[in-house]
Amino acid sequence: MGSVPQWEALAKLRQHELRNMKLKKTILFVLMPELKMRRQHLNPLGTQDFERSTLKPLADDGTIILHDYSNYFDETPAGEYSAFWDALHRNTEGQRLLTDALLPLIKSEIYKIQAN
Question: How many Cβ atoms sit within 10 Å of the Cβ of residue 8?
Answer without folding.
Answer: 14
